[in-house]
Amino acid sequence: MCEKARRNDLIFRPHFKTHQSKKVGEWFRQEGVEAITVSSLGMATYFAEAGWKEITVAFPVNLLQIDVINALASHATVNLLADDRDVIVELDSMLTYKVHLFIEIDSGGGRTGIPHSDLKRISSMVATVTAADNINLKGFYTHAGHSYDARSKDDIRKVFSRTVQCMQEVRQWAESNDLNVEFCMGDTPGCSVGERFDEIDAISPGNFVFYDVMQTIIGSCADDQIAVAMACPVVSKNAGSNDVCIYGGAVHFSKDSIEDGQKKIFGMVVRLGSNGWSEPLEGCFVKSLSQEHGIVHLSAEEFEQTKIGDVLGVLPVHSCLTAEAMGVYRNFNGELIDHYAQKNRD
Amino acid sequence: MCEKARRNDLIFRPHFKTHQSKKVGEWFRQEGVEAITVSSLGMATYFAEAGWKEITVAFPVNLLQIDVINALASHATVNLLADDRDVIVELDSMLTYKVHLFIEIDSGGGRTGIPHSDLKRISSMVATVTAADNINLKGFYTHAGHSYDARSKDDIRKVFSRTVQCMQEVRQWAESNDLNVEFCMGDTPGCSVGERFDEIDAISPGNFVFYDVMQTIIGSCADDQIAVAMACPVVSKNAGSNDVCIYGGAVHFSKDSIEDGQKKIFGMVVRLGSNGWSEPLEGCFVKSLSQEHGIVHLSAEEFEQTKIGDVLGVLPVHSCLTAEAMGVYRNFNGELIDHYAQKNRD
Questions:
Q1: B140 and B183 Cβ atoms separated by less than 8 Å
Q2: Whole-number pLDDT of residue B346
Q3: Nearest Cα residue to B160 out of B121, B112, B203, B207
Q4: I need a labelling partner for A166 at 20 to 30 A (CA). Which of A104, A208, A242, B96 fits?
Q5: What architecture does CATH give domain B223-337?
Q6: What residues of chain A score a pLDDT lower than 50?
Q7: Of the candidates B108, B137, B112, which has an alpha carbon nearest to the alpha carbon of residue B123?
């Protein structure tokens, strides 16, 4: 992704919400990354502690956290997101340090942001930001969350092209109004598959750092690009159904699932080695999760070879949520790697 | 639930996996509860620290955690669960302190346990436990997880009656073999709605302590029996759809959902007061969750009345997972209440 950003002359503001790790962040720094994106002010504070100087908080500004915003802005360059004029007016009056602002654009995802075609509201928003004393207009930001509905590279390409086009339309309006600001987009499917970033200045994907089962089904990546797996002990076998119960449930994986053909799955199954893992095992998948239990369906052959006490690897459906639920990583050297959501427990 | 246990002359071993709180545990102690149930050894250790002397770990024994088992068994009465003979043999050889064992029975849930009708395997399991040096047969345990498929009190009653009947059949076999042991069952729907606990000795429900939206839809409880809500700031409004975005996503709620009529919902919406909350707001529900964002659909009237910066209450679909994701509670006096999964962060 670093290489792709360089090749397309894009500012790369990787989203750190997936790994949430200072250590993993260092690997990005070694690639020359200088600015990052996060999804909460707490996460921003965590990474500011690690020396990151420019942090975009890609979540609509929550005025109830003004004290955290001011604390953060006192020693880092903070880019906030908003889609509402009243919020800007109130924010401006509460700031004790200057911040930068991306106006959020809804390019079709429908979650948050001003619809890209609503130039009247965009114009009014720009005027409000421009009039603010403590807020500098950084640019426009969009997250094409609807790329997650894709089920092939072609589907992704369509959403990606349309997203770029939406941003181009806003850009044309901006340029005709002498606004020279940054246009940033951020979804992992689009940034993984898209090739022509015309008139986009910056990208901020996050999930690509690990990918996950969902991304393979969307079409963003191949199975062997998934970079995290959960090690789950087998604690019970059900010979009637070829199911095994693993110690690995909703509190460990969170509870995201995805349709894989006709099946709803909560993870794919791999054999763990000393320095990696196998391809996903044919005919094997996590079929349900309760609080601490995971039920894994195995092929007859794999069921036969699996004993209680064995440790199976599970590729998560949604790596961001699984990493958050676990609060720590272990690499193949046995070293622990930090996560912002570290818990006070084993 | 305490009163129901007393009335039916049942040992009450409440499952603490829902609240996971020492403070909430004290409230049970004040009701005379002396033995508890948990879903992990870590949780067992947490509650042993709070002085609980008899703890059932209602999860198939994980031999990879033998050190935790031995540490716990050195100072508390520990009841483990298993459904496999080889595990018993291995466990027995690894124990440095004596433990008690419930043989897990599958009464139709199909998750773990020996099918109740497989008396041959049950008999062989009993013989193995009886022959073990460090394991005392405590009894038989079943979790009728299929009660979660119910959608009415009548549905629940059917699963409950069938579960009691399964346990009675095992009990008849046990008594004819001069085994005088305990029969325990644990699901919240069944224990909430069921009335005739004939030949059941003990119950271990957990979720009833808070209940949640899922339990209201199953038929276990009424809306006004839900005892936890999440306070979520509104950060964006979408006038086109009457949706608002709240700061409250999958990392806060986990990602369980349930079908409510034709809709898939991730929570119900209430107005928060200074000492409680309103009934669920008609026509309002959490319609989707991403990592930190929640999208709440509001009725036209509620949308009109809701401003960015307001705090909405959300009743969670699955209170156990939401409590685990948050790792702490706050009561209406502003006091924090502990949770085992407390995180090292805001």
A1: yes
A2: 54
A3: B203
A4: A208
A5: Beta Barrel (2.40)
A6: none
A7: B137
Tell me the average pLDDT across B188-216: 97
Q: Which residues in chain B touch residue A17, judged by CB atoms under 8 angstroms apart? A: 291-292
Q: Out of B59, B254, B340, name the one closest to residue A345 (CB).
A: B340
- Which CATH number applies to A223-338? 2.40.37.20
What is the reported pLDDT for A245? 98
- Of all residues in chain B, what percent carry a pLDDT higher than 90? 98
Residue with tokens 């880092």: A76
The phi and psi torsions of B116 (rounded to 5 degrees) equal: -60, -25
- The domain covering A2-209 belongs, at the CATH homologous superfamily level, to Alanine racemase (3.20.20.10)
Instruction: Say yes or no: ipTM exceeds 0.90.
Output: yes
Which of B90, B233, B251 comes nearest A324 by C-beta?
B251
pLDDT digits (tens, 9 = 90+) for B213-255: 999 999 999 999 999 999 999 999 999 999 999 999 999 999 9
Which whole number is the average pLDDT over B42-65? 98
d(CA A188, CA A318): 13
- On chain A, the residues whose CB falls within 8 A of the CB of B308 are 63, 84, 86-87
Segments making up each domain of chain B, as ranges: 2-209, 223-337
Residue B41 has phi, psi (to 5 degrees) of -70, -30
Cα separations in angstroms, A263 against A74, A245, A260, A343:
50, 18, 5, 33
